[in-house]
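Notes from hallway chat w/ T.B., transcribed later so I don't forget. T.B. wanted the structure written out for a chain they're using in a teaching module, and asked if we could keep both sequence and structure tokens in one place. Agreed to drop them here.
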Amino acid sequence: MMKQTIFLKSVTVFGLLLVTANVNARPDWIDKEPVNYPHQQFVTATGSASKLELAKDRALANLVKVFELKIQEESIARSDTQVNVKDGEETVSKADRLERQISVQTDKVIDGARVVETWQDEEVFTYHALAILDRTQAGNNIRQEMSRLDDETETELDQVKKLTDPLQVMTGLNRALVNQQQRLSLQKMLKVIDLKGMGRSSLWSQAELNNQLEEALLNLKIGAVADKDPIGGLEKTLKAAMGNAGMPAVKGMGDYTLVVSLDVQDLGKREGWYWLRGKLSLKMVQVSSGQIRGEKQWPLKSSALERRETDDRLMSRVSKTLNKELKTVILSFATGTINN
């Protein structure tokens, strides 16, 4: 009887050891697709850290990256050129950057994502977490948001047909275009969810909406005048930038007038270099009412070994600034989103 009791206790202890070993066993989802959450039904991601809550956060963050990385594949590589002036000497540096075409938050898309399993690797004191997102639920979230953007686009375009103010027309077209740009990001996300990679096509072409916006900009009857022009050639520079932006200045005042001015402060000679500080200002005035529809300012500087060259360099910066930013600024005047 004593031997039988000892045997049963041994079996019980051995069984408990097996259970403990199974509990602490390394889960399959750390190294491969989780068996309990198959790829056909779930989007999954893992995260690890020295603390449990941080591992959970990283798992959820990595789940978001599943969508972002897919969209990033279609990102635009741009080369930015920066001109820096130090001790009167100009240096040019280039930095390549990826401009992601992501214009919507993924919060609504990943609504319902959750951490379902955690495991601690006691040997290296590391926590692991598994986050999942149901494909059906995520797909429904995305389609619902796409439908909302489509409804808003349709409303904007219906309103545009009734408008006569060219700036209001541009505002409506720009909003419609922004909605469809956001929708495109959602479409790319939907392709991540949809294993067939189909998504749902839009009823509107972004290229066509952009063409309508360009046409509205071209039809904008807008004149150009210079207010303060201490160096000379400011009005000519503005008109050239308007032509390059696809909205040539009309003769006379037009329906609107762009008023440009330049304030210049001579900083004198410093360490062998002559310096000028400038403030370029631009405002759009509605001719019929005198209402200012928008204003924008840019701080500028120039330097040269000869005083007469500082004027030329400052005007060169004025020209570059207007050619680079004028179109965006005019659109911002129309939509009321300008920030100085």
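Follow-up for T.B.: The chain is about 45% helix and 30% strand. Might be a good example for the class.
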